[in-house]
From TrEMBL:
Its main location: membrane. Residues 1-20 are annotated as: Disordered. InterPro entries: NRAMP_fam. This is Metal transporter. It comes from Triticum aestivum. It is a multi-pass membrane protein. The lineage of its organism: Eukaryota, Viridiplantae, Streptophyta, Embryophyta, Tracheophyta.
Length: 548
């Protein structure tokens, strides 16, 4: 199953048991048995040209930072609060860079991705619960992609929203078609789509001409004012730092055969951080552009009353109509193309995140088209119901709810990541520095505190204005606060539970290879092949001379 020739005959469900058992029993070996697959080979020599071999995973991950969920929350943030919430985007982007770099380092250093570490470290019940939460995060991420693509089709071809929701199921076929061309070409396609989206919104930004001093103030002066600002801030956080991205990034880096020396690992971690910084900077500029465009347009003096009313309840569909009236007819089409590119590219990354989550937690895999179909079906059902009953406005609200769910679920991926990357028994000399540990735990604590604060205040407000009888309010309050206590207790369990499994970094000097069926160099941990990456139809190996 390592090449296109066998793609048609591979089973729909696969487990990773049964090959090269002598390489899978030690504490420092991957949980997935090694097989011979083609990967992108990183040369041992020290050269800045190696950076080009690492470019790719960061752009795949960055798509999640500019998906339709981000578009929706950015537009509402700009329309309702102008530039006041830009600082959330700045903090979330900086936090995302640090967190994504940790996820990449975990995969590079240990040869295993985050979901695999969770399966090895936690008891079966805990592992199963974490898997369910991770799957819900993948579905919650797919909902904005479904609705966003439906909005784009509505803007471009006047297709009803509910029909567009059904049509998005066909993206499975597009994903299956793209698979045969290999991960490298897929990465280039994603990078092209990212720059297409950036170009679209930078052009919009040039025409809307936001006040630069107000934009700078919004970036560097934190403030949350007005009803609903906290909820929207949480949505922005959830749309920027997604839990499934941590699983995805830690797995995508395994598509490179990194030299298993101390220097090779350090170089890989450094280059992945540089690549992630570049990709996330592009995503940051796109998000800033969207909020600035929305804020500038909705605060303009020449808006008529109807458009001003639309700004008070702005969604992706209305945003196009509003921009068309203010900025010209071509602007609506540009926005639609950017939205369509965002939705379709996010589908690809969401599918692979779901693949790695299922394989890592359960040691079970589906063929990508079946995995995509399952996730997309679970996302289509609520999207279709909401769009039929409530129309585009309700569908837009569903995107905000999905983004908030992602924020609430983030601690269940972030805490294990911070625990694992801070552990010397897992990362060895590559463990987090004290500064990085303090910084990342501060970021995680901030996200958890703001989530819990919003849950408590929103639930109390809901009870007080629900119109229920006193007895009903009491029982609802008991069950509601019991659920919050369970949520808090689950996070505290992950925080204070000590790591019990020792999985030291994979180094050439630590590996006991000696597989009788392999010649020297084959099966080496320096060319660590991974079964869970092979389904991406990896390209043939490139020798070091190709990089000269």
């Amino acid at each position: 199953m390592s090449g296109p020739r066998q793609g048609s005959s591979q089973p729909q469900f696969m487990t990773s048991v049964g090959q090269n058992n002598n390489l899978s029993n030690g504490p420092g070996t991957p949980l997935i048995d090694s097989i011979d697959v083609d990967q992108i080979v990183i040369p041992e020599k020290n050269s800045w040209k190696n950076l080009f071999s690492y470019i790719g995973p960061g752009f795949l991950v960055s798509i999640a930072y500019i998906d339709p969920g981000n578009f929706e929350t950015d537009l509402q943030a700009g329309a309702q609060y102008k530039y006041e919430l830009l600082w959330i985007i700045l903090i979330a982007s900086c936090a995302a860079l640090v967190i994504q770099s940790l996820a990449a380092s975990l995969g590079v250093v240990t040869g295993k991705h985050l979901a695999e570490h969770c399966r090895a470290e936690y008891p079966k019940v805990t592992n199963f619960i974490l898997w369910i939460l991770a799957e819900l995060a993948v579905v919650a991420c797919d909902i904005p992609e479904v609705i966003g693509t439906a909005f784009a089709l509505n803007m471009l071809f006047k297709i009803p929203i509910w029909c567009g929701v059904l049509i998005t199921g066909l993206s499975t076929l597009m994903l299956l078609f793209l698979q045969q061309y290999g991960v490298r070409k897929l990465e280039f396609l994603i990078a092209f789509l990212v720059f297409l989206i950036a170009t679209c919104f930078l052009v919009e930004l040039g025409y809307s001409k936001p006040n630069s001093s107000e934009v700078v103030r919004g970036l560097f002066v934190p403030e949350i004012k007005g009803d609903g600002a906290t909820g929207l801030a949480i949505s922005l956080l959830g749309a920027m730092v997604m839990p499934h991205n941590l699983f995805l990034h830690s797995a995508l880096v395994l598509s490179r055969k990194v030299p298993r020396s101390v220097h090779g690992i350090k170089e890989a971690c450094r280059f992945y951080m540089i690549e992630s910084a570049f990709a996330l900077t592009v995503a940051f500029l796109i998000n800033i552009s969207i909020i600035s465009v929305s804020g500038a347009v909705c605060s303009a003096d020449n808006l008529n009353p109807e458009d001003r009313m639309n700004c008070n309840d702005l969604d992706l569909n209305k945003a196009s109509f509003l921009l068309k009236n203010v900025l010209g007819n071509w602007s609506s089409k540009v926005f639609s193309i950017a939205l369509l590119a965002s939705g379709q590219s996010s589908t690809i990354t969401g599918t692979y995140a779901g693949q790695y989550v299922m394989q890592g937690f359960l040691d079970l895999r589906m063929t990508p088209w079946l995995r995509n179909l399952l996730t997309r079906s679970l996302a289509i059902v609520p999207s279709l119901i909401v769009s039929l009953i409530g129309g585009s406005s309700a569908a837009g609200k569903l995107i905000i709810i999905a983004s908030m769910i992602l924020s609430f679920e983030l601690p269940f991926a972030l805490v294990p990541l911070l625990k694992f990357t801070s552990s010397k028994t897992k990362m060895g000399p590559h463990t987090n520095s004290r500064f990085i540990s303090v910084l990342t735990w501060a970021i995680g604590s901030f996200i958890m505190v703001i989530n819990i604060y919003f849950l408590i205040t929103s639930f109390v407000r809901l009870l007080l204005h629900s119109g229920l009888s006193t007895v009903s309010q009491v029982f609802s309050g008991i069950f509601g606060f019991l659920g919050m206590l369970i949520y808090i207790a689950a996070i505290l369990y992950l925080v204070f539970r000590k790591n019990r499994k020792c999985t030291l970094p994979l180094l050439e000097c630590d590996a006991k290879l000696g597989d009788a069926g392999h010649t020297e160099g084959e099966g080496s941990l320096g060319h660590l092949p991974r079964e869970d990456i092979s389904s991406m139809q990896l390209p043939h190996q490139r020798p070091a001379s190709d990089l000269d």
